[in-house]
Specification:
The protein is an alpha/beta fold and 372 residues long. The protein has helices at residues 4-21, 48-58, 74-78, 104-112, 141-160, 181-185, 192-213, 226-231, 246-256, 276-289, 297-303, 323-336, 358-371, and strands spanning 37-40, 65-66, 122-129, 165-173, 218-221, 262-265, 304-306, 308-311, 340-344, 349-350, 353-354.
């Protein structure tokens, strides 16, 4: 997640150019939208052991759920080894196959939490990090079989632990750029259309593995098709941009998705938004402009939902929001979204709380009350 600072600011500048050129237009949410949910996922996300011991205190925070880390080596984790190399969600794309039996303690941790308020918790996944995705190419049947099996294990952990869904992070970390066709082509020389076809197939395989265990999973992607959309220009096409294969991969997800599941575009571009019109414009991009990148538009319309991300790390973000601005932003984001809004931070922590002014916590609580 360390790359998000510079990466997000560059992308936000691109989105800002688009918004200035587009008038705001209201969009009607899908009729099945339910109560709005505020989720936390950032550098202070808790692990399963923390959840086991502190779920009551966690529910004092103004959230409806959180991204929860599943450690690989629990003893090493307790001794301070908490990097991505010791997190299951960052290892799923690797050569190693995992077994559900290896995570019984983590499942027991999750079961120990008698949640009353945190109804929508998630397990995070990173698709394209050199921590595990090094050397992975779309045509490697054996490797992708292991990946699908690993996703099945994660889904089993989620179901047995009472977890709502998965947080999917498609961002490239390091030089392992899974969704960048020129980078992939250097490993296996095939035309772009062949890569799109294979990425779509792998999406179906992974979603089939998830859906077998979680037929009603919420798949919350920090970016959806709006990510490659932000890279496109008149002189550029999908085969040239960093995330050009992401729409095909997610098309496979949408095709294989059970009736009770859906994919949320978490729209990380919303980090600095202050005005309601910005959220409305983002909503329209998800449902209209980004739809054009899908080859399964009917599935996209049925299965994609609009969410928003907001960055509370006001001391590090040069475009920070005051407590009053943050309260309005959270309220508008909840109101415009189909259901989910997620809060991201790097310095401030909520579990346990540190490095954050109490006025921001109150702002989120007030925004939730107003949204409901």
């Amino acid at each position: 997640m360390r790359a998000k600072v510079a990466f997000a600011l560059v992308l936000l500048a691109v989105v800002g150019l688009y918004q200035c050129a587009q008038p705001p237009t209201a969009v009607t949410p899908p009729p099945e939208s339910k109560a709005k949910k505020l989720i936390y996922y950032g550098w202070g996300s808790p692990d399963t052991m923390y959840v086991r011991d502190h779920w009551r205190e966690m529910e004092e925070m103004p959230f409806d759920g959180v991204g929860i880390v599943v450690p690989l080596d629990r003893r090493a984790w307790q001794q301070g080894k908490r990097d991505t190399g010791n997190q299951l969600g960052w290892q799923l794309m690797g050569k190693k196959g995992f077994r559900i039996e290896d995570f019984r303690d983590s499942i027991a941790d999750l079961k120990a939490a008698n949640w009353r308020k945190f109804s929508d918790n998630f397990l995070p996944v990173a698709f394209s990090s050199c921590v595990s995705a090094r050397g992975l190419n779309w045509f490697d049947d054996q490797r992708w079989s292991a990946v699908a099996t690993n996703f099945a294990v994660l889904a089993r952990i989620a179901v047995e632990g009472g977890i709502k869904g998965l947080i999917l992070d498609p961002e490239h970390y390091g030089k392992c750029e899974l969704f960048y066709y020129p980078d992939q082509q250097r490993q296996h020389d095939e035309p772009f259309e062949a890569y799109k076809k294979m990425a779509r197939q792998r999406g179906r395989e992974v979603m089939t593995a998830i859906g077998a265990a979680m037929p009603e999973a919420v798949l919350f992607s920090l970016f959806g098709n709006t990510l490659p959309l932000s890279e496109l220009r008149r002189d550029r096409s999908l085969n040239e941009v960093k995330y050009g294969l992401l729409p095909a991969f997610y098309d496979g997800f949408l095709e294989a998705m059970p009736a009770g599941s859906y994919l949320v575009d978490g729209y990380e571009f919303g980090f600095p938004f202050k005005e309601r019109r910005q959220f409305i414009d983002g909503y329209r991009r998800i449902y209209h402009a980004a739809l054009a990148l899908s080859t399964v538009p009917d599935h996209y319309r049925q299965k994609v939902r609009a969410g928003f991300g907001l960055w509370i790390d006001y001391k590090k973000n040069p475009r920070y929001l005051t407590p009053e601005e943050f309260q309005r932003a959270v309220r508008d984001a909840l109101d415009v979204s189909d259901r989910y809004v997620w809060i991201y931070s790097q310095g401030p922590r909520f579990f346990p709380i540190s490095g954050i002014d109490e006025s921001y916590i109150k702002a989120m609580l007030d925004a939730q009350l107003r949204a409901r």
